[in-house]
Amino acid sequence: MKHLSIALCAAAIFAAAAPASAHVTLGEESAQAGSYYKASFRVPHGCDGSATTAVSMRIPEGVISVKAQPKPGWTVATEKAAYTQTYEVHGKPVSEGVVKVTWQGGPLPDDQFDEFAFLAKLPSDPEAMMLFFPVEQTCEKGSIAWDEFAAPGVDPHSLKRPAPALMLIHGEGHEHHH
Question: Which residue range is the domain that position 104 belongs to?
Answer without folding.
Answer: 2-169
